[in-house]
Each structure stands twice: as structure tokens, then as C-alpha cells.
Amino acid sequence: MTSPTVMTTAPVSPVSVPEKLLLAVVGLGLLLLLPVAFDADAARARLCFFAALGLVSAGTLGWSWWKFGREPAGVRQNNLWLRDSTGRGALAWLTAVVLTGFYVVLYWFSNDDGQGNFGPLNQLIHALDPVSQALRRRPADQWFLYGTFYTLAVLLMGGRALWKYRHSPYQRIRTASVMFFQLGFAFLLPGLLLAFQRPEYYFSYFWPLKYDYLFPGTVSYLLKDGGPALGVFMVFWGAVMSFVATPVLTYFFGKRWYCSWVCGCGGLAETAGDPYRHLSDKSRAAWRWEVRLIYPILGFIVFVTALLWLGAAGVLPGWFTTPQQSGLPLVSGLSPVDGLSKVYGFFIGSIFSGVIGVGFYPLMGSRVWCRFGCPMAAYLGLLQKHFSRFRISTNGGQCISCGNCSNVCEMGIDVKQYAQRGEPIVRASCVGCGLCSTACPRGVLNLENGPRAGRYQASQLISADSLRILG
């Protein structure tokens, strides 16, 4: 008679007193934002606002050092599924509700009423007026508040990632890259353009992600308000990056050159979303939904862009480009083709990429938008899978099936299945973050930009250590 197997669960390690204090500083900073939102005294609200940002910054960076900087370097995934904050517990749900609520209020309840009043976020927005005036020569608005919070999240959680992955040169450089592009190209440079009375242009975003950059109306606006030199350069930059640089760079480096090094959406996912990367669904059903959603979204924005240009060229019938009244508030007073772009912006640009894409980090992982909705990711993925030299090679002889690689994959790829068979990973969804390779204790996975010939063939390399394990 055999004894029954006893299943034990490793207890969650207790939180140390210094860690509790540092997290309390972060919590105090977040709570301090509440009186800012309701304080009628502008000077006092502004003081509280910057005190809150200071506490959140100091607490986050201090906690990151205490949590990761004092211990030996390496990827540790202890008790991620047992913690309330990272295992879809009550704290995770609360975080998701707060993030989702913030996006809803920002998008649909914080528009300027014409007198500088931004609704529920009014005090928070005007607390940033001195910063906005210094950078952009104009008062703050809801999008400047959003950009400030977004950039601060990338920088602070980027600092956490630098401590956590300090043993990996690839991760350090990649993290520094997304921090640089978010701060410089997505926050400071657009603000400086506004200060010089030029269009607020984001040089790190391209069509089809920034879908309106190649719409006829936006092109006309850039050429008119950007001036004869800068406006032409902006239009030229957007077109070249979308149709020339993107295929060339993806051919040599895969989609990682953009999704994991440049893109602001990816930058937030890789920094603020890092604690939730293990939550991505690895099932085949999730992969089917990925294919069903992301490629039709890409096709839709290509279709809308083509229709807009055909309409601008006078090819389409007049009724298709003439504004019409409709019972639908979202498209009333627009032409059918403009209505399509408005619908896309509302459902995909706002609800999917913002409310769901970020608000669901604590429940579905950090790359929900990138995996299921981003048209740029779909475009890059098609190039990567069929025309790129990029792949992740594996050495099945050394794999010990620990599952670390699959656990850290935010794109829902079951990397372990490839590693066990020694098959290279050539997937359209892979963003080349390299965390699977960083987390592997045996060096089984390697990011390569080799020749296209043989990129689908399994590696035949078996080391002496592997032979000892096998034999």
C-alpha cells in the first residue's frame, strides 16, 4: 500500500518592515492625490500634487532598490500566483478598477467646457499648469496630465526594471531605450513643438498605430501648420517610417526594434506592466482569439485609410464623402467614410487600447492591447513571421522543463514547448523582449538575427552537460 501524495504550497514570504514603510510612502502619495482633486485652493492643491508625486517617486525607487538591489541578481518568480497583487486577488481587482475608472473619466468626462474647466480632473490638471507653461507655453489639459502620469510610470517602473534585470545587458539597454523614447520623443519633444506654435507630433508613433497620421485631413493639417519645411518633414517621416523603415528594420531585427525598444505602449507594458507579465493566457483558445481580432483590426484601418484617400481624390461617390445626419451620436453629422474613422477611434483607439489595454493589466497581463488589438503589432508580426531574419533559437538537450520561460512571456507563447523540442521560435506575436532568455537558468534560448535560411530548423547543438543529463 502506497502512502498518499501530500501537496504542499510554499508560504508567501513575509514583507519586511522597511518594505512595508516604503510601500506606505507610495500609498500615502497616491492618497494625497484625492484632496488635490477636491481642494478649491489652487496653491494648496498644487503643493499637495507635487508632494504626492514626490512621495510616489521616492517610495517606488526606494522600494525597487530594497526589493531587488540588495539581493543577488537574477530573475525570481517566487509566489507570483499567491500574492493578492499579482495573482488576480482582491488588490489586483482593485487596481484594475481604479485604472479603468481613470481612463473612463479621462476620455469621456474631462473635456474642456470652453472655460478651462475639465470636470472631475480639473484640479489635478491645473496643478500642472506651471510645468505645462514652462514646456508648452500654454495651460495644461487632460492629455498633458495623462502624458505626465504615463511618462512618470515608465520612468519609475523603468528604474525598478533596471534593478531587477541589472544582470542582463540586453534588458538594461532595452529598458533605458523605452525610457528615453517615452521621455524625449513622446513627452518633451511634442511639448516643445507646441511651444513653437507647431503641431504636436509624436515622432516615435507611426501608422497604422497612430492611424490618423496618414489620413488626408491630418496630412493637410501638418503641411499647413507645420510650415513648408517641418510640415513636409513630418509627413515624409511618417510615410517613410511606415512603409520603408519598418519593413527594413523588421527584416533585420524582427518586431522587437519597435515593440520592445521604441513604442510607448510597449514601454509601459515592459515597465509598469512587468509585475503582471505571467498573467498572459497561454492557451490555444487565446491564440485563436488573437488571430481573430488583431488582423481584422489591421485590415479595417487599412480599409479606412484607403477610403479616405479615395474620397479626397474624388473617386468615391459624393454621398459617401458628404456629411449626413444619423441616429447614432458617434457618427451624426459626418460622412460615412469619416464615420468609419470615428468609430475606429472610439472602439479601438480609446476603449481597446486605453481602457482595456492598460486597465486590465492586473487581470490579463501587460500586453493585452499589443497581443489582441494593435494594428502596428499585426503589421510587424506579418513581416517578422514571413520575411524577417529574427528568431529565438533553442537547445532542447539542455532544457530542464522548469517553465520559467513560459511564465515570463507576456505575449502568451508557451515557450517551454518549443524549448523541450529544440525548435526555434518564429512567431508573429513575439515582441523580442528577451525575458524568456533572461529567465532561463540553462542558457537554452538565444535571440538571433541570422540568415533566413534555416530559421525554422531545430538546433542540433548538444553540449557535454546535456549529454551527461541525457545519458
TrEMBL record:
Q: Does the keyword Manganese apply?
A: no
Cellular component, GO, one term: plasma membrane
Record GO terms (molecular function):
4 iron, 4 sulfur cluster binding; metal ion binding
Stretches assigned to the 4Fe-4S ferredoxin-type domain: 390-418, 422-450
For this UniProt entry, which segments traverse the membrane?
49-69, 90-109, 143-163, 175-196, 229-253, 293-320, 343-363
Highest taxon of source: Bacteria
Keywords carried by this UniProt record? 4Fe-4S, Electron transport, Iron, Iron-sulfur, Membrane, Metal-binding, Transmembrane, Transmembrane helix, Transport
Q: Known Pfam families for this protein? A: Fer4_5 (PF12801), Fer4_9 (PF13187)
InterPro entries, A to Z: 4Fe4S_Fe-S-bd, 4Fe4S_Fe_S_CS, Electron_Trans/Redox
* Name of the molecule in the record: 4Fe-4S ferredoxin-type domain-containing protein
Organism for this UniProt entry: Hymenobacter swuensis DY53
